[in-house]
Design a protein that fits this description.
The chain has 16 helices and 22 strands. The protein has 639 residues and is of the alpha+beta class. An eight-stranded antiparallel β-sheet has the order 3-2-1-6-7-8-5-4, covered by helices on one side. Strands 9-10-13-14-20-16-17 form a seven-stranded antiparallel β-sheet, with helices on one face. Strands 11-12-15-19-18 form a five-stranded antiparallel β-sheet. The relative contact order is 0.06.
């Protein structure tokens, strides 16, 4: 296909003449003495108006969307009338001088493209126009899920209309897809086999994908009347229109459609799609695996329930109990259902225990608080409060997914995200406060210190979640499903539904905090080691002075206390959450169990730390009172 680009630059002063110049590499369009020449990659149709994408729709039947011979015969300056529509999202161009071609330029805007797609005829020409619109407004289709969903629905309607108008077996090459319509006779179903092989879905010209074999269940086809027993096999050249997340497609997408928009569901004998010559060895890397998926046309996502995958050398077979669009995806190895169940029990028990002890920490703090309460204890309790909210919300996340009202699950997911960010923020505040106390000892007095920390600890996460909820184009919170690797069971919870948003916000947020807290932890641990060396030196000198062994039992007691102190600080600053980095990219069950146990019980360990801190403070207060109590003296008068 010849490289070409159509550019219409429409200034505020409407032109009355259009000059077109064509060659094998580009199209130059001149309006009001403004000329622009650009070249694009093979197959990309591009229209630009003042730098914004647009679609050119010429109403004359002779205007081909993919016929380069038309462009080679059109050149020169043509008289034209350009009229801007009232909504300023479209322009009408009437070419004169005998051409009698009327073109409409549509801007790539949401409402404009939706109306344009709905206005297309359900025919081969309409489908070519539909693909032309997608290619012209590819940026809009990639970022706007509403447009992409409407495109998929419109394409399916056109496929069924073409099938309804086809009376015999026929193949259609429609640029982005190949449609083969097959009518199955009753004689073909008079067989003893459970499945019958329909003709292979033909790959498109210029593709290297091998054609998969499709076997349909005979008993299900027999139940369809003869006049309605038409099957449409669709093979797609690309995957972009079906890409709604981070899917990694490793085969062509094949769609199975039946006349009358029927579907085969809950089949006793499954549909089989056999993909041959699969490069299995190169695909299975880093504990990843190939799995058959189908496209859920209601939720617009790729799922695998109802489908089984079997691999024999280079042959991969998908066995599914329904008909729709299928493909083979490369996915990272997930957690098996046995380990998933154990980890779930650990998480729920640990979060329940943490919720109880964090609530107990709040009660002790409220009723035992005094005017001399140290800032450190107040910060510990704030972190404990955020963990209490996180654990409580986590325990409700699975229940929220079962509630019919969507706002309930969305609220739980957004609030749990807020609590998680609050925990991360208060962990960073713990590290900052520890740095000010132990490392930067002097000039650490700040006015309204605790108030400022509270505004940061509770306010920053509120801003992040508030902005996320305020974005109208994307819904970040809702029901998300997790699937076990060796079964078709799914577990629905209320959480973040957009993977890109999850990684871009949470991962970046926690990574910065983790780096900061890890640096503080190393500095504090180094200070403790230095103090231990000083203590060891003093103990050795004292032992030598007494001519006895310096292996004092108190030395080991101090070492244990130092180790427990570092461990407690580790939980306070949340550096145990860094285990998530060690398990990224592959499934390491030891890291998963360790991560699950330590972080689900973090609230319990913080409760112990708060109790010890409170006890130390009471001891200091008692000693201060004893040292500050005046000594009473008595005098005896003598006459």
């Amino acid at each position: 296909m010849v490289l070409f680009l159509l550019l219409l630059l429409l200034p505020s002063c409407l032109a009355d003449q259009v000059c077109l110049t064509f060659n094998s590499k580009s199209i130059t369009t001149t309006l009001s003495n403004t000329t622009t020449v650009r070249e694009e990659s093979v197959g990309l149709v591009s229209c630009s108006n003042h730098g914004d994408s647009c679609v050119l729709d010429c109403l004359d039947d002779t205007f081909p969307y993919y016929n380069d011979s038309w462009f080679s015969t059109q050149s020169g300056c043509l008289e034209a009338q350009v009229e801007k529509h009232h909504n300023r999202s479209a322009y009408t161009i009437q070419l004169n001088e005998g051409s009698n071609i009327t073109c409409i330029l549509y801007m790539c805007l949401n409402d404009t493209i939706l109306q344009l797609m709905q206005s297309l005829n359900d025919s081969q020409e309409g489908m070519l126009k539909l693909f032309y619109i997608k290619d012209s407004c590819w940026a809009l289709f990639n970022k706007d899920l509403i447009i992409k969903k409407a495109f998929i629905r419109r394409e399916k309607d056109m496929i069924h209309e073409i099938m309804n108008t086809t009376t015999s077996d026929h193949s259609y090459d429609l640029k982005d897809l190949c449609l083969k319509v097959i009518n199955i006779s009753t004689d073909e179903l008079n067989m003893t086999n459970a499945r019958m092989k329909v003709k292979d879905a033909e790959p498109l010209l210029g593709t290297n994908d091998s054609s998969p074999e499709i076997w349909l269940p005979v008993d299900a086809l027999r139940q369809i009347p003869q006049e309605e027993r038409g099957v449409g096999l669709v093979s797609y050249m690309g995957h972009s229109q079906f890409k709604f997340g981070e899917e990694d497609f490793r085969s062509m997408i094949v769609r199975i459609e039946l006349l009358g928009n029927k579907r085969l569901n809950d089949l006793r004998t499954s549909v089989e799609i056999i993909f041959r010559d699969m490069d299995v060895d190169n695909n299975l890397q880093n504990n990843s695996q190939l799995q058959c998926h189908y496209f859920d046309e209601n939720d617009f996502e790729w799922r695998k329930d109802g489908c089984e995958t079997s691999i024999n050398e280079t042959v991969l077979t998908c066995s599914c109990n329904h008909t729709t669009a299928f493909s083979v995806l490369l996915i990272r190895q997930e957690i098996s259902d046995v380990h998933w169940e154990i980890l779930s029990y650990i998480s729920y028990i640990g979060c329940g225990i943490s919720a109880f002890f964090t609530a107990l920490s709040l009660v002790i703090y409220v009723f035992g608080r005094s005017s001399r309460t140290d800032h450190s204890i107040s910060i510990h309790v704030s972190l404990s409060g955020s963990l209490f909210l996180l654990n409580t919300t986590f325990l409700l996340s699975e229940w929220g997914a079962t509630v019919e009202e969507d706002w309930v699950c969305m609220f739980i997911a957004a609030f749990m995200h807020y609590c998680l960010l609050c925990c991360f923020t208060w962990m960073a505040i713990e590290a900052l406060h520890l740095y000010l106390m132990l490392i930067k000892v002097f000039n650490t007095h700040f006015k309204h210190y605790l108030v400022k920390l509270s505004l940061a600890g509770w306010g920053i996460p509120c801003m992040v979640v508030g902005i996320s909820l305020g974005v109208k184009q994307n819904q970040f919170y809702g029901i998300t499903e997790m699937t076990m690797v060796d079964s078709n069971e799914t577990n629905a919870v209320c959480w973040i539904v957009n993977d890109s948003y999850f990684y871009s916000v949470n991962l970046v947020y926690f990574t910065l905090i983790f780096i900061f807290n890890s640096g503080i932890l190393v500095a504090v641990a180094s200070s403790i080691c230095k103090m231990k060396q000083v203590l060891r030196h003093n103990l050795k000198a004292e032992a030598e002075a007494k001519s006895s062994s310096w292996m004092n039992p108190n030395r080991f007691s101090d070492s244990c206390k130092s180790g427990l102190t570092v461990m407690g600080i580790t939980f306070l600053m949340g550096t145990t959450w860094g285990l998530a980095f060690l398990g990224s990219g592959y499934t390491n069950y030891f890291i998963l169990y360790l991560f699950c146990i330590l972080n689900s019980s973090q609230g319990f360990f913080i409760f112990l730390w708060i109790c010890l801190s409170t006890q130390r403070q009471r001891k200091r207060d008692y000693e201060n009172r004893m040292t500050s109590t005046p000594i009473k003296t008595s005098t005896t008068k003598s006459d």
